[in-house]
Amino acid sequence: MDTDLTTWSLEQTSPADLRPAVEPDGDDIRIERAAVPSPEFSRFLYASVGGDIHWTDRLGLTYAQWREHLERPGVETWVAYDRGTPAGYVELEAQPEGAVEIVYFGLLPAFRGRRIGGHLLSVGTARAWDLAERWPDREPTKRVWLHTCSWDGPTAMDNYLRRGFRVFRTETEEKTQPPTPGPWPGA
C-alpha cells in the first residue's frame, strides 16, 4: 500500500545541546558498549527493535556484510539491559568532518513505555559526543545527527526533541510501506 512517508533529520551541534533524561527509578537498567563486533547479536537487536516498525533495510545483509559494517572504525553499539536482558540499543557511526550519526535507536516492544528510551538516547548521544576519546584517529565530534520518520514509534520524535535535537530537514515522499516482519518469521 502506498502511503506518505515523512522523514525528519535532526541534529545537535554542541555537547551543551544534550538535555539528558532522568534515569528510570527503581529499575536495574545499565547501558554498556558491545565492544566485540557480533553480527548475530546486532541482527537480533535490529530485528527485535525494528520488527514492528518497518525496519527492513538490513534484513537481507549477509553475515559477512554485518561483520564488515560492525568492524569499521567508529561504529559502536550501546545496549540497554534490564536486569541482564537486552532492552534496546543505539548504533553510532562516525562520519567525515566530525559528524557522528545515530544510525539506529530503539527499544524492544516489551520495554517501551518504561522511561528507558530517554535514558538510553541520553547515554547514546553523550557517547557520540565523546566518540573520539575511544577512537584516537578520529577527529573530535562537532555534530551528532539522526533521522526519524512517520513509520517510527509514536514517541520517537518527542524523545529526540526533549533530548535537545533540532530538525534541520523534512522530506515527504510516497512510498510503499513494507510489511512488519516481526523479530522472527510469523511473530
* Count of alpha/pi helices: 5
Distance between the termini: 21 Å
Shape: globular
Poorly predicted runs are none
The main β sheet shows up as: 7 strands, mixed
- Share in helix: 10-25%
Strand-residue proportion: 25-35%
In angstroms, what is the radius of gyration? 16 Å
Order of helices and strands: EEHHEEEHHEHE
Give me the count of strands.
7
Strand order of the largest sheet: 2-3-4-5-6-1-7
Q: Mean pLDDT, rounded to whole units?
A: 92
Structural class: alpha+beta
Q: How would you sum up this structure, described in words?
A:
The protein has 187 residues and is α+β, with helices and mostly antiparallel strands. 24% of the residues lie in helices and 33% in strands. The protein is built from 5 helices and 7 strands; from the N terminus they run ββααβββααβαβ. It has a 7-stranded mixed beta sheet with strand order 2-3-4-5-6-1-7, with helices on both faces. Strand 3 and strand 4 (85-95) form a beta hairpin. The protein starts with a strand and ends in an 11-residue tail after the last strand.
Give a brief description.
The chain has 187 residues and is of the alpha+beta class. Helix content is 24%, strand content 33%.
